């Protein structure tokens, strides 16, 4: 007995917990993914089970994680707890989460990190701890057991110290992000224990420890990104006492601050990192005029960097910036150069001529104009250049632009889109090697023989073109999107065309001649673009047919009935099963057909309401609240009545009003208690005559005794006695 009682208590407790979980977080019901974010929760809800694989509790008010909170969630793969108020975690809170792969505790109130928390998270790959209140990582490593860790994000504005041994146990990280914006103490060797890091981001305002961190990362990091730093004039070598080969290949400065002095010194120091191939500066500020120590830079030897990217760099008083004379020897090996959104208006001719190895040049979104372009692309400049991007500048003359660009003997890819040329000449000079030309969004009204016949790819999208009839025998790809074309380009002038984009034009029809002599391999035109009026007509006809079919099906299968039934059921479900005894107003609610009203109102009502003691009956004609929806009237009347009395007849079965009245009472009445229903058969009626959808009523008719109104007067007294007895029961 006690064993049964114990099992019952456990099952009852589990059921109670599951109900509490469903109430606290409705999405957890019968789902592997449990989204409880932004629910205003003060604690982790009880009832979490092994079926849950992802639990999102972010953006709540949880302050503590207790031992038992996650004990049953043994199959959890992702646990999101960011943006709460967590300040306390019991040491064994995560002990059962051996399958957990992602844990996010960022933006909470943790004052320290305990190694015990993560000791059993053998499968953990992603750990986010940034935005808390801890000032260090403790005396040892909190991550020593996390052998599968791939990404780690930690740090906060209070984070001020890193010690040796803090990262022991971590051998490989795909990404490491440290918010050390206020880091002031760094023990040499703290990061050296990590053998390999693909990408490391560190927010670091204290420039004095920059060199120490770089020295520790030379052999482990492939891409180092430093944010918010104000670079100091560093005297010590970055590779001091370090042995080659190094691993670091890419260095990015984001939101950094430079001066002429720090730039000069940094260029010299970075040359010592012989594996460094790529430099980036994004959203940085340079305070200076370009007066760099070119002598020291030249003496330090050749740079190994092959790619430089500068995006949105603000140079205060950029119009006073010098032309970097003396830097010529440092750019010979550069292969890719991007300077975008940085107010570049020219490059000195002498400097441009020394970019002897440059293959790719991107000057998009700057201030280049035609009269300065003559200096930027002078004779002998950029001798190896193959790709040039001058989009989003202030070039006005296509003829002049083409003339200057023709000085680039090896150029095959040119983007001059989003310049406001407006006009296009009949003849232009271009490099003989040019194969790709982007003239999109340049406001040209037509295409002329200015466009070179050597092209294989041409983009003239988003212009004002009304026709296209150029002879381009080598062209393979043509982009004509967002123009004013009414007909397709002829096939004969572009015999080698493989792909053409012609969306968003004014094409109405295609003629056979437009495809003469050309084999179409693949045409990506939608049916709407080809036959717009036909498609619209078909859609209208189909829509009409669908509506017609839905109406027919709804009528045949009583869809409206089921919709009303469902709504009534939902309404009833929200209310308590039965009104309290004090709210019972009637002995019976009477449901009857209007055709039977004479017998109900003049015979039955008089007999029952004038009895001693009298019965209180609820009739829809007399007792329904005017203006109240019929559904609410019916449900309220049934709930406030001790019994529900159905006066059944052929009229009742066929009556629409009675049908819906019975519908709305059907679920609530018969689901609760069959004894609450009293059936009075006013005339003989077969249960088969009752519609099949009233399955429970049909069943009651077959299984339960009902009262039949006798036509013989001597038997009617017995009928009234039986009916009164049923009402009193």
TrEMBL record:
The entry's keywords: Disulfide bond, Glycoprotein, Immunity, Inflammatory response, Innate immunity, Leucine-rich repeat, Membrane, Receptor, Repeat, Signal, Transmembrane, Transmembrane helix
Transmembrane annotation, as ranges: 534-555
Signal sequence, start to end: 1-20
Cystine connections: 28-34, 349-378, 428-450
GO-annotated biological processes: inflammatory response; innate immune response; toll-like receptor signaling pathway
Protein's membrane topology: Single-pass type I membrane protein
A Pfam family that the UniProt record links to this protein: TIR
GO molecular function annotations of the record: transmembrane signaling receptor activity; triacyl lipopeptide binding
Domain TIR: 584-727
GO cellular component annotations of the record: plasma membrane; receptor complex
InterPro entries, A to Z: Leu-rich_rpt, Leu-rich_rpt_typical-subtyp, LRR_dom_sf, TIR_dom, Toll-like_receptor, Toll_tir_struct_dom_sf
Location(s), subcellular: Membrane
Homology family: Belongs to the Toll-like receptor family.
Protein's recorded name: TLR21 protein
């Amino acid at each position: 007995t006690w064993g049964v009682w114990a099992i019952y208590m456990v099952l009852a407790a589990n059921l109670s917990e599951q109900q509490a979980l469903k109430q606290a977080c409705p999405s957890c019901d019968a789902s592997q993914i449990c989204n409880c974010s932004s629910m205003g929760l003060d604690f982790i809800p009880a009832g979490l089970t092994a079926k849950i694989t992802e639990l999102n509790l972010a953006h709540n008010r949880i302050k503590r994680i207790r031992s038992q909170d996650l004990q049953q969630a043994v199959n959890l793969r992702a646990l999101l707890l960011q943006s709460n108020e967590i300040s306390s975690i019991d040491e064994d809170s995560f002990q059962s989460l051996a399958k957990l792969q992602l844990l996010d505790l960022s933006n909470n109130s943790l004052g320290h990190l305990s190694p015990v928390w993560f000791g059993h998270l053998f499968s953990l790959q992603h750990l986010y701890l940034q935005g808390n209140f801890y000032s260090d990582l403790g005396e040892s490593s909190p991550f020593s057991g996390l052998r599968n860790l791939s990404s780690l994000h930690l740090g906060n504005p209070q984070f001020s110290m890193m010690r040796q041994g803090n990262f022991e146990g971590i051998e490989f990280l795909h990404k490491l992000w440290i918010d050390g914006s206020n880091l002031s103490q760094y023990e040499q060797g703290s990061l050296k224990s990590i053998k390999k890091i693909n990408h490391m981001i560190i927010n670091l305002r204290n420039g004095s420890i920059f060199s120490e961190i770089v020295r520790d990362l030379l052999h482990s990091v492939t891409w180092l990104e430093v944010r918010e730093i104000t670079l100091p004039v560093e005297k010590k070598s970055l590779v001091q006492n370090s042995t080659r080969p190094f691993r670091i290949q890419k260095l990015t400065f984001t939101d950094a601050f430079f001066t002429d002095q720090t730039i000069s010194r940094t260029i010299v120091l970075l040359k010592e990192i012989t594996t460094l191939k790529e430099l980036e500066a994004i959203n940085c500020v340079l305070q200076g005029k370009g007066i760099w120590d070119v002598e020291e830079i030249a003496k330090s030897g050749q740079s190994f960097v092959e790619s430089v990217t500068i995006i949105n760099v603000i140079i205060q008083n950029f119009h006073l910036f010098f032309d970097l004379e003396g830097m010529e020897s440092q750019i010979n090996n550069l292969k890719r150069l991007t300077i975008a959104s940085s107010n570049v208006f020219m490059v000195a001719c002498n400097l441009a001529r020394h970019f002897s190895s440059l293959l790719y040049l991107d000057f998009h979104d700057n201030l280049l104009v035609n009269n300065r372009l003559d200096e930027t692309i002078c004779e002998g400049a950029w001798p190896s250049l193959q790709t040039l991007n001058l989009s989003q500048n202030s070039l006005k003359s296509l003829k002049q632009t083409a003339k200057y660009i023709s000085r680039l003997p090896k150029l095959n890819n040119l983007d001059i889109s989003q310049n406001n040329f407006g006009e296009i000449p009949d003849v232009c000079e271009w490099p003989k090697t040019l194969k790709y030309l982007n003239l999109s969004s340049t406001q040209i009204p037509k295409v002329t023989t200015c466009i070179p016949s050597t092209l294989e790819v041409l983009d003239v999208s988003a212009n004002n073109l009304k026709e296209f009839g150029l002879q381009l025998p080598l062209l393979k790809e043509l982009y004509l999107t967002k123009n004013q074309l009414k007909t397709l380009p002829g096939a004969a002038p572009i015999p080698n065309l493989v792909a053409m984009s012609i969306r968003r034009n004014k094409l109405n029809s295609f003629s056979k001649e437009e495809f003469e002599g050309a084999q179409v391999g693949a045409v990506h035109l939608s049916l709407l673009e080809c036959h717009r009026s036909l498609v619209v007509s078909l859609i209208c006809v189909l829509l009409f047919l669908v509506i017609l079919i839905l109406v027919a099906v709804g009528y045949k299968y009583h869809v409206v009935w089921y919709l009303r039934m469902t709504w009534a059921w939902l309404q009833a479900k929200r209310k308590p099963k039965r009104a309290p005894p004090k709210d019972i107003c009637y002995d019976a609610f009477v449901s009857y057909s209007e055709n039977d009203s004479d017998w109900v109102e003049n015979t039955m009502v008089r007999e029952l309401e004038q009895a001693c003691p009298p019965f209180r009956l609820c009739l829809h004609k007399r007792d329904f609240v005017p203006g109240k929806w019929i559904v609410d009237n019916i449900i309220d009347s049934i709930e406030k009545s001790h019994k529900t009395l159905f006066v059944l007849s052929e009229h009742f079965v066929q009556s629409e009003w009675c049908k819906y009245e019975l519908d709305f009472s059907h679920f609530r009445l018969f689901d609760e208690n069959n004894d609450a229903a009293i059936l009075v058969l006013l005339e003989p009626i077969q249960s088969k005559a009752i519609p099949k959808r009233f399955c429970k009523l049909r069943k009651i008719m077959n299984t339960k005794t009902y009262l039949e109104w006798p036509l013989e007067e001597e038997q009617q007294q017995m009928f009234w006695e039986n009916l009164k007895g049923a009402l009193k029961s």
